[in-house]
Amino acid sequence: MITRVGILGCGAIGMEMAMVINRGDIDGATLVSLYDQDAKKAAHIQEKAADTVWYYSNFQEFLSTEGMNLVIECASPQAVRLFAPEILQARLNLLMLSSGSLADAEFFREISKIAEENDSQLIVPSGALGGVDAIRAVRHLLKEVVLTTTKPPKGLMGAPGFKEWESVEFTGPQVIFEGNALQAIQEFPANVNVGVTLSLAGIGPDRTKVKVVADPKAPGNVHEIFARGDFGAFRFRLENKPHITNPRTSYLAILSAIETLRSICGTGPRIGT
Question: Is 253 helix (H, G, I), strand (E, B) or coil?
Answer without folding.
Answer: helix
